[in-house]
Amino acid sequence: MSIAFEQLTVAFNHKAVIEDLSLVIPQGCFFTLLGPSGCGKTTLLRTIAGFTPAEKGRLLFGNKDVIALPAHQRDIGMVFQDYALFPDRSVFDNVAYGLIARGWSRERLRPAVLAMLDHVSLTGLHDRFPAALSGGQRQRVALARALVIKPQLLLMDEPLSNLDTKLRIQMRSSICKLQKEAGITTIFVTHDQEEALALSDLIGVMNNGKIEQIGSPQDIYQTPRTAFVANFVGGANLMPLPELSSPIGQGYAQVQSPLGPLKAFSYHQLEAHHACLMIRPEDINLSLDTGLQANHLPCRIMGKHYLGSKTHYDIILPDGTEMVVHLSGQAHEQFGIDQSLFACFEVESALLVRA
Amino acid sequence: MTMLHLSTFSRRLLQGLGVGLLAFFLLGPLANLVLWSVAERWYTPFKLPVTYGTKYWEVVFRPTGDAMTSLTTSVGIALAVVVVTLIVSVPAGYALARLRLPFRAAIMLLFLLPQAFPSVAIYINVARIFYWIGLNGTVIGVVLVHSVHALVYSVWIAAAAFSSIDQDLEWAARNIGASPLKTFVSVTLPLAAPGLVAASIFVFLESLDEFTGTFFVGVPQVTTLPLLLYNASMGGNYQVASITALILLVPSIGFMLIIERFLKGDVLSKIGR
Ligand SMILES: Nc1ncnc2c1ncn2[C@@H]1O[C@H](COP(=O)(O)OP(=O)(O)O)[C@@H](O)[C@H]1O
Ligand SMILES: [Mg+2]
Fold first, then answer.
1. Domain A235-354, what architecture?
2. Same domain for B232 and B170?
3. What is the value of ipTM here, to two decimals?
4. Are B127 and B166 contained in the same domain?
5. If you ran DSSP here, which 8-state letter would residue A226 be given?
6. Are B93 and B155 in contact (CB under 8 A)?
7. What is the architecture of the domain spanning A3-222?
């Protein structure tokens, strides 16, 4: 089932938390809402699930507007951030709850529940109570409870944020596998960019109740549209530019920076005011001379952090702009604090984004 | 080492003193009650009863006796009060816990209001009003008076019990297909049950113990145990009064033990939040 929002607005006490959101998620897509804490991700999920009413706008499941439908008739499975397992029910009864609510008999639901528990690798744990499970197991019970009703849509609110790193990476791949097998349209919420990049077919980067950019993980990382997206996904050095004389079209552009002209590239149309230059830390090279790359700026090393496979440098430009540079290999080992050098980067690495 | 020993010793001494004082204040009166209940004759200047016997126990427990009637009346009224307060405090407590009601604090205060005024003044007026509408001297009148008094506790405890339940649990149930009513009955209510049971026990005990309201509204037709106790001690019959007092103690102690096992700390900590 495909999902669409049309000018959805959600407000608390007349303050909009989600504003005029329009978005289409195709059938079977693993869609991730990525954004910092407090940007409105949970609110949006709750509105989709029917717990928080929308101020205005439409919410289409397929081509049916469900905005007026009560939560229990929307046919959605949701995995809550803290799992929300019923503490007074066994694993079996937790998973069976949705089927009982749908009027299934005990005999009919038993094999379905046990099969679902097998499916999420919880075989044999059906008699346990939630308090006697590990974090990862609770997570899988929550997933089984949401999936066993074969919902049209799966919602997950930061489901991995309470797990330790190793388990998180394991669960990541099993969620991915379960979702693909079920072919179920999924909206996954996270503030972890790595998680979003690893799992998603499509990512929507959210900031202050608005979606700043929608695209594949590659689109989002390689061709960010705004400074926020660039910085939030992958991290970026940003250099504000003085107002441009004319709007920028797609392609190569010569821009006037506070430190002189720079050759840059733009994937998107940009208005004249609000442009910003963004360079990934790994796309900058430090060298003793101006080098062969298209752009070079004089800089001074302020800090050096050796991290094994790479070294992070904090540098400062003559106008006071600070930047971070990630270098790998050994060629730069002799660089030290306070040394003056050149920061060099290619045209394609100097992207113009909306400030 | 000596210092340590000394301090352990003095701590022991303090502990012993504390326990002794507690025993004196709690068990002293109790022992007195027990003595009186088995004293067939006891008068000054004797420090202990002159004749022991169970004559008065037989009097009290005689099926046709006043005491048994009062006991039945008291328990009946207490149970009715529990039902009435549950009917009010479950929805009220849930609303206070879940809905973002305007004037939430004011509503909580409203339930406290009956406690704020001198109860005798209130009861005299209530008795007058009840007299006009024919509720004076009826069991229903007494149940009403007890219920208003008990709502203070029960609404408060019910609100605490409901707000200690994570709303995500209700949403999880709604999400996978349970209607609001089914969610409330199958998820919310069972989780709130310990708190509601505790509230009901408090209400039951309060009603069983209540004196002033019953005195103004119920007398002379409705005689509960505390009234019987009052009448007996006014009439100089300390034996019957002591036995009645002992009977009144039984449910209190029993329920206190239950509450202690039943009530989770997180419910208690949310009372009045
Ligand atoms: N029930 C509520 N009442 C008022 N404001 C709320 C409520 N729920 C969320 N908010 C506000 O809405 C904003 C978005 O919150 P949320 O959706 O939880 O963000 P996220 O899940 O992205 O961290 C926050 O500023 C939060 O304070
Ligand atoms: Mg959230």
1. Beta Barrel (2.40)
2. yes
3. 0.85
4. yes
5. B
6. yes
7. 3-Layer(aba) Sandwich (3.40)
Same domain membership, residue B258 and residue B199 = yes
Residue A45 CA: nearest ligand 1 atom is 17
Q: Which ligand is nearest to the CA of A46?
A: 1
Q: How far apart are CA A80 and CA A62, in angstroms?
A: 24
What is the value of pTM for the model shown? 0.82
Digit-by-digit pLDDT tens for chain B (273 residues) are: 455 566 777 888 888 888 888 877 777 788 888 888 888 878 777 778 878 877 777 777 777 777 788 888 999 999 999 999 999 999 999 998 887 767 777 777 777 777 777 888 888 888 899 999 988 889 999 999 999 888 888 988 899 899 999 999 999 999 999 999 999 999 999 999 988 988 898 899 989 989 988 999 888 888 888 888 888 888 878 888 888 888 888 887 887 777 676 665 555 555 544
Number of neighbouring beta carbons within 10 Å of residue B183? 22
CA distance B141 to B3: 65
Nearest ligand to the CA of A44 is: 1
Contacts of B178 in chain A (CB under 8 A): 72, 97-98, 101
Residues B122 and B30 in one domain: no
Which of A171, A150, A13 shows the shortest CA–CA distance to A83?
A: A171
Cβ–Cβ under 8 Å, residues A133 and A163? no
